[in-house]
Amino acid sequence: MLFPFRPSPGAIVPTNVPSVQTPSKPAFQRVLLKLSGEAFGHAGKNGISLDETLAIAEQLKRVVEMGTQLAVVVGGGNLLRGAQFSAGLNTIKQATADSMGMLATVMNGLALQDTLESLDIQTRLMSAIPMDTVCEPYIRRRAIRHLENGRVVILAGGTGNPFVTTDTAAALRGRELGVDVLMKATRVDGVYNSDPEKNPYAEKYDRLTYHKVLQDRLKVMDLSAFDMCQEAKLPILVFNYKADRAIERAIAGHAIGTLVTGE
To answer: Does residue 26 fall inside a structural domain?
Structure first.
């Protein structure tokens, strides 16, 4: 349940304070948030938007202040997608193109890191591709220690391997780090029985089981990532990061998006 914001007598209330506040305690202790590259830019445009990145960082700051241990897997599609080289002259091999895409995730990771630190939130940027001059190498035990010390761990470079999506990287890191839930932030507000951008009558699911997802061939994550979550019984929450304070509400346990579990 949400409670209205009531200022103390005589307090000066800024006009931009939301009328609804999120609870002070998170529903999940340790969370893996998967942010696609498009979260760092304006819709339909390439590049990194400073205001979009700041909006994400401000939510993450409040999440950390709630007491959540937060790891973030970042994509790079706003800068470059390996698949864009699959057509045309084919002068760039897919393995090379995928490596270029992984480097793009490091750029987004650097942008998010500096933005969070400008808000006084401690971070560590870790990459599956060794890049010692700009970030730490990904080491599981070190990442867990950072989480335990209250730092936001930003995970870039995918898995360090071509032909693997950032969905798979998120599932892998989620299992390695022992998170309570994998949250997939997208531009849609959950999982539907058909594409809601094409079918205005598409029906949204509030909850799903792994079995139902496979049975109906619903699009939640790529299959290898989904299998990894199912095997570990790792819950998946799919939600629209653009909704008002969506990341905070999701981590606070509000009914948002679509939750996929074993039951």
So the answer is: no
